[in-house]
Amino acid sequence: MEPVLTKYVREPNSFTLDFYLKHDGYTALKQALGTQPNDVIEIVKASGLRGRGGAGFPTGMKWQFVDKKIEPRYIACNADESEPGTFKDHVLMERYPHLLFEGCLIGCWAIGAKVAYIYIRGEFYHVQKVMEAELAKAYAQGYAGRNILGSGWDCDIVIHRGAGAYEAGEETALIESLEGKRAQPRIKPPFPALSGLYNKPTAVNNVETLCNLPAIVLNGAEWFAKLGPEKNGGPKLYCVSGHVKRPGVYEASMNTTLREIIFDRAGGIRDGHQLKAVIPGGSSVPILLPDQLDVPASFDSVQKAGSMLGSAGIIVMDETTCMVWAAMNLMHFYKHESCGKCTPCREGGDWLWKILSRIERGEGQMRDLDLLVSVSNNIAGKTLCAFGDAEATPPLTTLKHFRAEYEAHIREGRCTVPAEWRARTAVAAAH
Ligand SMILES: Cc1cc2nc3c(=O)[nH]c(=O)nc-3n(C[C@H](O)[C@H](O)[C@H](O)COP(=O)(O)O)c2cc1C
User: Fold this and answer.
1) How far apart are CA 223 and CA 28, in angstroms?
2) Distance between CA atoms of 72 and 278, rounded to whole angstroms?
């Protein structure tokens, strides 16, 4: 598939307004402004675009739910990108920021918003600087702000820097943080489309989601839908990390299988090693085994295979990976990042980490395995947001597929992967 989103990102100065204008920049916005807002919603609905932030919810439907009777309305662009293994939005924002600005403006036109807030991850300081400089140029040349493209329509884009919390990527926590409060989730319903930022209707959309809009407007809904399997249309960015020869961001149709992405695009497993396990959608989703990879890397097919496409962060592990260590390492992240609002997540994450750590050190007991399941099941589905489900996943999925490895740790009183592969285990355990 000819790249759509990342076609130019490797070219020098691709981030500048001049470059963008030379490559059809802001022509989709001009076209959209010549139509009724509802027409844009209809095109996006017909295209079948699904959110690229994790849940894969249809974007057009989300926009339709936005309450058009209440003003003001907002777009909140989710640029928090903190899911481990996920680094695609970063590339778009750093190398092609005007695509995102144009997507934000088309989204605002569609739902009748006058402001788009781009909530950018705190650690993306450099990216933010690039975006701010480019946004100033867009304002100066009439592509944002007052009387955009001479249309008489005003719309602002505000770049808001987060303070470095994974939870701030959850849509209601993001809204709280934008309002100047701690990034903790709200009870849903009401959903942001009805009551979001400042209790006004808000569409929270991921960076990659919004970046698809100019191409949909220019090329049409049918073109977009036909790029992938039914209900999984459009181009998709995959972040491949771990034990592959060429880690990186790859754009492909969702017809492409997970095996093709890992072996053809990312070069396969590093020399002399074999594939052991893959987490296909960022750290929060269940593991797939090597014989489960011949499925299209689409929302629906990956789900059928027993996992989720999530943020399309494909984490590849070879046989040098101790799966108890992997679960412990991920749990270290979750226990640290829990926002603390819900007791099961706040307390349970720490317990899970402690249990996993003692098994990894060789100090676990067989009854710890049931305890891991019991604690995990008392977190998943029992919290305000999906963080709890994510946190419960590493122990449950590694136990499901690699129980023998856990039992060997307990029986032998030590980590069972060879010593030369264990160096990093010691580093993680020291935290
Ligand atoms: C703990 C947690 C972290 C999340 N982090 C992100 C994130 O960094 N970026 C993102 O786009 N969505 C993230 N999401 C998903 C958002 O809540 C929301 O579904 C998404 O921004 C909607 O945009 P989309 O419809 O374009 O996918 C996260 C969800 C949870 C539960």
Assistant:
1) 15
2) 44
- Topology of the domain covering 235-318: Ubiquitin-like (UB roll) (3.10.20)
Interatomic CA distance for residues 387 and 346, integer angstroms? 10
CATH 1.20.1440.230 spans which residues of the chain?
323-429
Ligand 1 neighbours, Cβ below 6 Å, are 51-55, 57, 78, 80-83, 166-167, 169-171, 204-206, 209, 385-387
Q: Which CATH number fits domain 17-226: 3.20.20.70, 3.40.50.300, 3.90.220.20, 3.40.50.11540?
A: 3.40.50.11540
Whole-model pTM: value is 0.96
pLDDT for the residue numbered 431: 46
Q: Cα(173) to centroid of ligand 1, in Å?
A: 10
3-state secondary structure 71-129: CCCEEEEEECCCCCCCCHHHHHHHHCHHHHHHHHHHHHHHHCCCEEEEEECCCCHHHHH
Predicted confidence at residue 420, as pLDDT, reads 75
Please give the distance, rounded to the nearest whole angstrom, from the Cα atom of residue 217 to the centre of ligand 1: 24
Instruction: Determine the distance separating the centroid of ligand 1 and the alpha carbon of 310, expressed in angstroms.
Output: 9
Q: How close is the Cα of 408 to the center of ligand 1, in Å? A: 37
Residue 30's Cβ-count burial label (10 Å; 0-12, 13-18, 19+) is: middle
148 touches 154 (CB < 8 A): yes
Query: What confidence score (pLDDT) does residue 3 get?
Result: 97
Per-run averaged pLDDT (10 residues), the chain, 431 residues: 96 98 98 98 98 97 97 98 97 98 98 98 96 98 98 98 93 97 96 98 98 98 97 97 97 98 97 96 97 98 98 96 95 96 97 97 96 98 97 98 97 87 56 46
Please report the atom of ligand 1 found closest to the CA of residue 57. Answer: 25
